[in-house]
């Protein structure tokens, strides 16, 4: 077993259950004597009982003999999470090392378009790679890097989450009554080491995402900044509260559902950035073709020709929509049955358990419903012939030229240089005129003297 805890602490904190195992809740099947079935009257609240039970949950649990007391938290278990610090440093290091390869891959796939003159000018000024791009293109590449990183992490995390839970009795999609009770019993549950490691890097990842949101990506506009921050903070609280309350089964199940549904979201957004730039290039090329007959078309890479298309983008978006609705709006609400309708009858109530009920069924599920509405709106617009776009983030359109961000500063510097050159030429002309003025006056004087001498000689004659 991975954790060590005191039985006395569990009793004082109200972490426990009157049932030692799930077998105590089975009764003989009336229709088949050789089978046993769950006694739903002892395990599940009826819908009519919910209002009266939740108006005073402590009185209800005392009435049914379950009991409700304590905070439900063993704070000493937080020390077990210290390896998350090393996971956090490792995740940030891997993310930093992947930035340049992801950026080069994005440039290869046509996420940005940079004029060769602008790129050579940036290289001549001592900049290399992403640093030689314009500010607008750097932001686009940063968005692409982020989505590529998220795609890689969510895929790896989903594979590990499935590996950890694949043979567990609670791991069913969606949950049935038996699997829901396996999430609750026996309690307290001592998780294996693999599940604790799942918690370690999950906690580190969401903390790293918060740091990225507030520090690394602080200059990038996001229309869903508040929702994104609330989602990550809620997930962190869910991980921490489920750990100190020994509710690791709930936490691991929720982490897998979130990771599995987010894979195609990141892939779709990465393809969206490629297709968005491809569409912009096509429009610019059509405009140029209208002006020049012999204009050169943009040269695509082999992988870009195979992957980047409207069909692949729509297929990825459809896959994301199906996964999102299946995992977050179909599978996850079944956990509401386990936490709201079953836990009051089979578990000792405590503050931490009801905190998890709120975080899971109100905060997280509320955000999922909000995002589902956005997805439906986008799907309807596509069905009407609209364009697929990322409606959760603002599209940044800088006022600068899309291909060369420092063109304006160069124009200003060239104008200033031209003004200085004009002023210098004017000063040189004035100096020439001032030098030429004495010679002109002397020539006029000599001419006047010669004419006077001729006149005097004629009078003498």
Structural features, described:
The longest helix is centred in the C-terminal third of the chain and has 54 residues, at 407-460. The chain has helices at 7-13, 40-43, 50-55, 57-63, 83-108, 116-124, 135-165, 177-184, 193-216, 225-244, 248-291, 302-307, 310-346, 351-383, 407-460; strands at 26-29, 32-38. The chain has 15 helices and two strands. α10 packs antiparallel against α14. It has two domains: 75-288 and 299-396, no CATH class; 406-443. The model is unreliable at 394-403 and 405-418 (pLDDT under 50). The protein has a two-stranded antiparallel sheet. β1 (26-29) and β2 (32-38) form a beta hairpin. With 461 residues, the protein is mainly alpha-helical.
Largest sheet: 2 strands, antiparallel
Whole-number tally of structural domains: 2
Beta-strand residue percentage = under 5%
CA-based shape: elongated
Total number of β-strand segments? 2
> Radius of gyration from the CA trace?
36 Å
Quaternary structure type: single chain
Query: What structural class is derived from the secondary structure elements?
Result: mainly alpha
Task: Looking at this protein, list some descriptive labels.
single chain; 461 residues; mainly alpha; two-stranded antiparallel ribbon; 15 helices; elongated
Q: Layout of SSEs?
A:
Blueprint: H1 7-13, E1 26-29, E2 32-38, H2 40-43, H3 50-55, H4 57-63, H5 83-108, H6 116-124, H7 135-165, H8 177-184, H9 193-216, H10 225-244, H11 248-291, H12 302-307, H13 310-346, H14 351-383, H15 407-460
Antiparallel strand pairs: 1-2
């Amino acid at each position: 077993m991975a954790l060590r805890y005191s039985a006395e602490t569990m009793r004082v904190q109200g972490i426990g259950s009157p049932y030692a195992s799930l077998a105590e809740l089975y009764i003989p099947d009336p229709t088949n004597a050789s089978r046993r079935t769950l006694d739903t009257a002892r395990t599940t609240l009826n819908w009519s009982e919910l209002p009266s039970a939740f108006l005073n949950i402590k009185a209800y649990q005392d009435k049914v003999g379950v009991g409700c007391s304590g905070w439900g938290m063993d704070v000493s278990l937080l020390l077990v999470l210290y390896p998350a610090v090393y996971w956090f440093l490792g995740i940030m290091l891997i993310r930093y090392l992947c930035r340049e390869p992801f950026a080069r891959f994005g440039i290869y796939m046509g996420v940005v378009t940079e004029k060769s003159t602008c790129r050579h000018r940036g290289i001549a000024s001592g900049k290399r790679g992403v640093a030689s791009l314009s500010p607008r293109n750097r932001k686009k590449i940063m968005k692409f890097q982020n989505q590529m990183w998220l795609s890689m992490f969510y895929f790896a995390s989903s594979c590990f989450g499935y590996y950890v839970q694949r043979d567990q009795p609670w791991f069913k999609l969606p949950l049935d009554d038996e699997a829901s009770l396996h999430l609750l019993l026996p309690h307290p549950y001592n998780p294996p080491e693999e599940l604790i490691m799942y918690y370690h890097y999950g906690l580190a990842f969401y903390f790293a995402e918060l740091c990225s949101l507030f520090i690394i990506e602080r200059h990038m506009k996001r229309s869903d900044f508040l929702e994104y921050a609330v989602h990550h903070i809620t997930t962190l609280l869910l991980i921490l509260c489920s750990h100190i309350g020994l509710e690791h089964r709930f936490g691991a199940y929720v982490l897998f559902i979130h990771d599995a549904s987010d894979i195609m979201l990141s892939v779709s957004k990465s393809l969206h950035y490629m297709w968005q730039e491809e569409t912009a290039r096509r429009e610019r090329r059509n405009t140029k073709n209208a002006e020049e007959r012999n204009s050169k078309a943009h040269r695509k890479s082999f992988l870009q020709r195979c992957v980047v298309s409207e069909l692949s983008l729509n297929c990825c978006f459809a896959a994301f929509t199906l996964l999102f609705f299946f995992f977050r709006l179909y599978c996850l609400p079944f956990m509401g049955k386990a936490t709201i309708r079953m836990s009051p009858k089979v578990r000792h109530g405590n503050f931490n358990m009801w905190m998890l009920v709120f975080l899971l069924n109100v905060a997280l599920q509320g955000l999922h419903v909000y995002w589902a509405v956005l997805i439906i709106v986008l799907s309807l617009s596509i069905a009407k012939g609209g364009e697929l776009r990322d409606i959760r983030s603002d599209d940044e359109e800088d006022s600068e030229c899309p291909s060369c961000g420092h063109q304006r500063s160069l124009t200003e510097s060239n104008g200033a240089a031209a003004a200085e050159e004009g002023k210098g030429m004017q000063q040189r002309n004035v100096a020439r005129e001032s030098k030429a003025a004495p010679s002109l006056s002397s020539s006029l004087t000599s001419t006047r003297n010669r004419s006077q001498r001729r006149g005097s000689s004629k009078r003498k004659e």
